[in-house]
Amino acid sequence: MAAARGGRVRAPSGTRERGRGLVSAPRQDPLRDPRFFADPYPAYDRLREGCPVQRVPTGSGGHSAYLITGHPEARAAFTDPRLSKDTARFFADRPSDRDLHPAVSRTMLTSDPPAHTRQRRVATPLFTAGRVRELRPYLTRVVDGLMAAWRPGTEVDLVAELAVPLPVTVVCELLGVPESDRATLTGWSHELFDATDTHRVDAASHRIGDYLTHLVETARATPGDGPLHSLLRDCDEGGLDRDETVSLAALLLVAGHETTTQFIGNAVLALLRHPEAFDRLRRDPDLIPGALDELLRYDSPVGVATFRYSTEDLRIGGFDIPAGFPVLIAPGAANRDPAPFPHPDRLDLDRDATAHLSFGHGIHRCPGAPLARAETEIALRTLLTRFPHTRLAVPEDSLTWRRTRLTRGLTALPLRLA
């Protein structure tokens, strides 16, 4: 099948059958429907079954993008150099009413090699397997401290009392953010992912960018040997200028905790929804590291990856994408593709789910993945060990989800500890 410019889909000879042959592209943005935020998987299934690469409307004003929902197609798109992440280049000759701070809009995530290569070379050593092993005692102390006041028979909000503060504490330590500022920064970060209010997003980006610019400039003017000073030395040695250094700090702050927060919350809810899996990990917590890939696949903390665009006409998995179009890759959909993952709506801890795309793939794969896995593993192990009979404190249908297509996560997860 190939997606035609007019929004129709047909099945040419020589391509594998994945849809119904001829389908219509959605008339409205399928990623802004209120039902999508509550449960995106039926929409993902319809889109993928219709055509795993198709043109869809985005927002208002007649704009559109190519949305990739199939697993092999998404995996190929993540590594295709003809899909650029350089958003500044894409919008250079296109009028826009957006006003994002450069530190947020021009990060490593929005660049191509060689600029991307230079910035990633600085970021990657922060999250190597060896470095994360060194951090594990610290991560355990943070989790223990956050759960110190938890008692059986009481209620807690796992999101507010563990899933948010754990990664926030870790990344803020790395950046030298004072404890008194961390809650404010967390609030700005949440606003940055608000899919319903672009003005609010833009304003939050400036608050974050201005704060981090001041933080970096203050650290440069004050000699020291803390984590932020060490990061600044790495940035200098890596050839990053001031703006690139601030943008790396912004990326570490936002990406360093948002997805981990959703990972922890989604994983706990998935286990509560599947008591057999919960009991299995409760009886043998050493199985938790091996269960993380399936938990990531089952309810990905990243629904739709950040913006790409086609620099030339190309084909992804036999599907045509013309030059000059935005391209959205949906790991949340790809991870539920039944081709690589039979019975994808089932949480199966025995499944080999290592091919999931929750951390991306290729040169833009999340460098912080080892840290996110370690934080989630320690959080789950501590919860299941201390409170092995924990359950939801509210009806499941009363849970609410954040209104953003980029990440998927709960606004709160009330638990009754036991």
TrEMBL record:
Domain of life (superkingdom): Bacteria
Listed GO MF terms: metal ion binding; monooxygenase activity
Keyword Oxidoreductase attributed: yes
Cross-referenced InterPro entries: Cyt_P450 (IPR001128), Cyt_P450_B (IPR002397), Cyt_P450_CS (IPR017972), Cyt_P450_sf (IPR036396)
Region spans: Disordered: 1-35
Keywords: Heme, Iron, Metal-binding, Monooxygenase, Oxidoreductase
Keyword Oxidoreductase applies: yes
Pfam families the UniProt entry points to: p450
PANTHER family, A to Z: CYTOCHROME P450 YJIB-RELATED, P450, PUTATIVE (EUROFUNG)-RELATED
Family according to the record: Belongs to the cytochrome P450 family.
Protein name per Swiss-Prot or TrEMBL: Cytochrome
Naturally occurring in which organism (per UniProt): Kitasatospora albolonga
